[in-house]
């Protein structure tokens, strides 16, 4: 806009503002229907005479402005009445709407600020943002009383180098806003449904109780993206976890079958934790294969049910299970046990026990009660083999009878380890 | 190796002072460094651990030389002298063998494990030299993992149908075996008739030397000869005990190799490019299978000492060095029950002695190597690893 244009506009604005009464009524701005300058003067051909009262009221409102009298009615009385109605003792001018060029109205100025900014008109006592913006809606610059800016000018001359303001800012309209979820909104919503809620059971705050009462744990995650679309593909993922002890009717064989089935799947696993001396196993499953979250949840519930029911069901062909199919290392049936029979000299029972315990400790991973392969477990295995074959430092030749090296403490330890492994085997 | 901090190393060695671990030896007394006992079988755990000894020429040429890395052999040639360290693992194995092996007792098996460069092969060499001095028969295999990487001559085997012969390696090994046991071999006789093919056979009662000569003249039958000799050992026809030393034993149970079988196509591994030919593994090589039979426990009057190393895990670049992981389920089940022997990194005394010897022999030439701080830095950089120390000391 040229500076002259701006000046004209400003002057027009100033004129308008100065001329307008303080209540900023539309009437003063020239928008009122009733003050349309010539509407009261419009005579349609064929219409009856002017209503006296109307004319009188109109003329009263018009004040001192003189009008040219147009072609009056047919009777002298009408003329007289019209003459009396008009200030000047003249004729009214004929105005045909659509044809007569009316006097130039002041230009319709689409003012950016026809009113003062809303923030100036808001009264704290009566302002409630939730009632102004009750639901999610597209951003409206006039309704939101905040001087928000969005966008980045490409250079220093564009918009004087500052971010565009909110008026007519399409970027603000495109992106989602959360003006419908302010703390005031949330408080109002909560207050509205509070009467439907029951208090949180205090007993559930104690540790361990909630896992007992509500064993199934479902985890979902919501994501917020500052982008054209607020959707995030990761939000569809559902994680489900369950303590294995809570699955009833699972005997040893069913539990083994469940662990075997889980080991085949790529969306489930069994975590083992040691709480003190006891072992806690959790079944963890996850799904993001379906597009929607509730679909993934349904799928997981289905998968869990299928896993449980199938592990309870024993097929006839499962009796063909071999030693290598065991979930964890078992000494019974292993090749090491078979080799004991081939030893030249039959080893003592406690030597076999040492050997068995050492092998179990070496082969089983920590979650199954062993230690896996460490220097300690290898050393223990070596000592057990030396004891078995009779080649210890002080042992006799040929791997024969009992070796005298054992003292009371190690025998006790051997007994303890045996008991531990039996307890684990039974679990 | 270098990721372990000096604090951890010292804590493990229970040393508080950073320089207490490597005390610079003042004075020229060689009694604290070298032992005059050059006979490996007379080294004892009480007196000689951590000391260096000079191997005798005969021992060196026949036995120990083969267990050393080429870098170490070159070092000894450069310095003009040889010194090997007496360490605990070899002495422990030697003690077990002396007490419980031989004399018709079942085969004992020991598996040396440790990081690369920690000295497993040299420990085996110490055991082998000691046994050779006691008059045992030595069967040593050093390059099995290299036999599986390359093969120039590969034939379908006649004496074991379905398997492959590597004639060249068979000949090399027979020559090496003969050189190692030259004093013993004239006394050994074959108890069975060995038939090479439909027409030719060696009668029972022939000496082993004849069998070896025949195989060297007819390389096609070298692997068969090896198999026959190993059968003889297992039968118990050898009057003296036998020591089997097998370096990198885990390659016997490895599923990959560098030798391809053009006839068989296999499913491609991830990222593999065509053509997808099956590997010829150790199970299909007669030479390696023959030595594998010696590692079994069903024969008497002998012992087997082997080492496991990630060098045998071909094309996998494993960082594993624990025996069970390298051997796998199959290898472990085959060797079970065995005694695993850990070859530790150098302790403070051993490290100190080694650095002293390097300094005295002139291998460490820089002035920094003579200072306490320099020695501590060498100890830290090598992290107690013998091979690393050898390489790093070459730069100082």
UniProtKB/TrEMBL annotation, chain A:
Coiled-coil ranges (or none): none
Single GO biological process annotation from the record: mitochondrial translation
Q: Where is the composition biased (Polar residues)?
A: 409-427
Q: Which InterPro entries match?
A: Ribosomal_mS35_mt (IPR039848)
Note down the stretches annotated as region Disordered: 396-427
Question: Which is a Gene Ontology cellular component entry for this protein?
Answer: mitochondrial small ribosomal subunit
What molecular functions are annotated in GO for this chain?
Answer: structural constituent of ribosome
Q: Which segment of the chain is annotated as a signal peptide?
A: 1-19
List the keywords (alphabetical). Answer: Signal
Q: Which domain of life is it from?
A: Eukaryota
Question: What is the recorded name of this protein?
Answer: MRP-S28 domain-containing protein
Naturally occurring in which organism (per UniProt): Macrostomum lignano
Source taxonomy lineage? Eukaryota, Metazoa, Spiralia, Lophotrochozoa, Platyhelminthes
Automatic annotation (TrEMBL), chain B:
GO molecular function, one example?
structural constituent of ribosome
Can you supply one Gene Ontology CC term for this chain's record? mitochondrial small ribosomal subunit
Q: Which InterPro entries match?
A: P-loop_NTPase, Ribosomal_mS29, Ribosomal_mS29_met
Location in the cell: Mitochondrion
Q: Where would you say this protein principally sits, based on its record?
A: mitochondrion
Q: Which UniProt keywords apply?
A: Mitochondrion, Ribonucleoprotein, Ribosomal protein, Transit peptide
Please cite one Gene Ontology biological process associated with this protein. apoptotic process
| Family note | Belongs to the mitochondrion-specific ribosomal protein mS29 family.
- Stated name of the protein: Small ribosomal subunit protein mS29
Q: Which organism is it from?
A: Macrostomum lignano
């Amino acid at each position: 806009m040229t500076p002259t244009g701006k000046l004209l506009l400003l002057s027009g604005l100033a004129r308008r503002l100065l001329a307008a009464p303080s209540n900023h009524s539309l009437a003063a701005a020239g928008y009122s229907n009733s003050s349309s300058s010539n509407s009261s003067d419009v005579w349609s051909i064929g219409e009856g005479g002017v209503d006296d009262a109307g004319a009188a009221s109109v003329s009263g409102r018009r004040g001192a402005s003189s009008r040219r009298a147009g072609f009056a009615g047919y009777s002298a009385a009408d003329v007289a009445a019209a003459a009396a109605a008009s200030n000047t003792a003249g004729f009214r001018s004929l105005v045909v709407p659509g044809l007569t060029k009316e006097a130039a109205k002041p230009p319709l100025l689409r003012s950016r600020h026809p009113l003062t900014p809303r923030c100036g008109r808001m009264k704290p006592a009566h302002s409630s943002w939730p009632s102004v913006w009750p639901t999610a809606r597209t951003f409206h610059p006039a309704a939101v009383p905040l001087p928000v800016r969005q966008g980045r000018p490409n250079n220093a001359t564009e918009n004087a180098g500052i971010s565009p303001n909110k008026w007519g800012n399409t970027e603000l309209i495109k992106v989602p806003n959360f003006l419908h979820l302010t703390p005031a909104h949330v408080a109002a919503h909560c207050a509205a449904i509070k009467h439907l809620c029951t208090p949180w059971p205090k007993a559930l705050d104690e540790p361990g109780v909630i896992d007992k009462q509500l064993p199934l744990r479902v985890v979902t995650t919501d994501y917020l993206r500052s982008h054209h679309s607020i959707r995030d593909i990761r939000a569809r993922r559902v994680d489900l976890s369950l303590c294995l002890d809570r699955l009833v009717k699972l005997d040893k064989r069913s539990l083994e079958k469940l662990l075997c089935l889980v080991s085949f799947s790529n969306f489930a696993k069994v975590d083992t934790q040691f709480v003190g001396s006891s072992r806690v196993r959790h079944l963890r499953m996850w799904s993001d294969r379906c597009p929607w979250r509730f679909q993934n949840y349904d799928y997981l519930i289905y998968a869990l049910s299928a896993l449980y029911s199938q592990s309870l069901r024993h097929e006839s062909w499962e009796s063909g299970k071999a030693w290598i199919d065991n979930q964890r290392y078992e000494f019974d049936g292993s090749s090491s046990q078979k080799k004991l029979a081939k030893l030249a000299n039959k080893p003592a029972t406690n030597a076999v026990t040492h050997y068995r315990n050492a092998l179990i400790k070496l082969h089983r991973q920590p979650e199954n009660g062993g230690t896996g392969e460490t220097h300690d477990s290898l050393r223990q295995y070596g000592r057990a083999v030396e004891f078995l074959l009779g080649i210890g430092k002080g042992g006799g030749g040929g791997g024969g009878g009992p070796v005298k090296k054992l003292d009371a403490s190690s025998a006790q330890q051997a007994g303890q380890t045996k008991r531990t492994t039996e307890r684990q085997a039974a679990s | 190796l270098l990721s372990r901090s000096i604090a951890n190393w010292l804590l493990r060695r229970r040393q508080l002072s950073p320089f207490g671990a490597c005390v610079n030896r003042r004075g020229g007394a060689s009694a604290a460094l070298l032992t005059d006992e050059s006979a490996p079988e007379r080294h004892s755990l009480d007196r000689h651990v951590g000391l260096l000894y000079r191997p005798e020429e005969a021992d060196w040429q026949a036995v120990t030389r083969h267990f050393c890395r080429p870098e170490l052999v070159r070092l000894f040639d450069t310095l003009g002298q040889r010194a090997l360290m007496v360490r605990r693992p070899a002495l422990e194995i030697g003690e077990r063998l002396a007490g419980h092996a031989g004399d018709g007792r079942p085969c004992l098996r020991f598996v040396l494990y440790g990081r690369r460069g920690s000295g497993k092969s040299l420990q085996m060499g110490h055991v082998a030299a000691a046994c050779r001095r006691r008059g045992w028969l030595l069967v040593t295999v050093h390059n099995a993992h290299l036999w599986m990487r390359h093969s120039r001559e590969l034939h379908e085997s006649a004496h074991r149908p379905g398997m492959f012969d590597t004639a060249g390696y068979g000949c090399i090994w027979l020559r090496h075996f003969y050189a190692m046991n030259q004093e013993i071999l004239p006394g050994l006789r074959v108890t069975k008739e060995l038939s090479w093919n439909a027409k030719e056979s060696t009668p029972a009662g022939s000496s082993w030397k004849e069998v070896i000569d025949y195989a060297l003249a007819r390389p096609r039958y070298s692997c068969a000869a090896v198999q026959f000799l190993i059968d003889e050992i297992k039968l118990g026809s050898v009057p003296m005990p036998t020591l089997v030393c097998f370096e990198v034993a885990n390659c016997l149970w490895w599923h990959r190799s560098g030798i391809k079988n053009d006839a068989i196509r296999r499913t491609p591994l991830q990222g593999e490019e065509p053509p997808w030919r099956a590997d010829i593994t150790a199970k299909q090589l007669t030479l390696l299978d023959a030595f594998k039979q010696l590692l079994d426990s069903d024969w008497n009057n002998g012992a087997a000492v082997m080492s496991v190393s990630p060098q045998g895990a071909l094309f996998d670049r494993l960082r594993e060095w624990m025996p069970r992981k390298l051997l796998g389920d199959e290898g472990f089940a085959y060797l079970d029950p065995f005694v695993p022997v850990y070859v530790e990194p150098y302790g403070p005394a051993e490290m100190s002695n080694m650095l002293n010897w390097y300094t005295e022999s002139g291998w460490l030439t820089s002035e920094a190597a003579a200072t306490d701080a320099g020695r501590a830095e060498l100890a830290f950089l090598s992290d107690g690893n013998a091979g690393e120390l050898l390489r790093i000391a070459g730069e100082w």
